[in-house]
Amino acid sequence: MNGVILRWPVPIGTTINAQYNKKVLQDKLRPAIRKKRPGLLESGILFLHDNAPVHTARAVTDVLPVYKWELLEHPRYSPDLAPCDFHLFPEMKENLRGQRFETEEDIIQATKVAIKNLDKYSYVTAFKDWLQRIEKCANNGGCYVE
Fold it and tell me: What Cα–Cα distance (Å) separates residue 18 from each residue in 54, 61, 63, 123?
């Protein structure tokens, strides 16, 4: 709810698989949490992934308990329950609308600025919306219908 912890552009030509995802969790996300949210690693992490194979692979799910990160369940086939999909990406798109980019670096910098321009209230709203969507899904027998 306090904003983005890690913004990690995937290098061109990189295959996103379970091993890559595990490496990002270990080498990028964990240190970013330690730096940006001191004490959070010790107090416990609730971790939300969708059900994409790269997120549900054993290499990834086995490392989460090692770090004492609790994986929240995510209903199948419900991408509209991920705050990035229904909140962060649409807001970023709005900030980037109409711009043209010449290089990959231009895109990276523009997305960095777009993320920085999102205020804290925006994240609080996203998580309140997420809780309402999760509740709706639970009340609907595990199915989410918008």
Answer: 5, 9, 11, 28
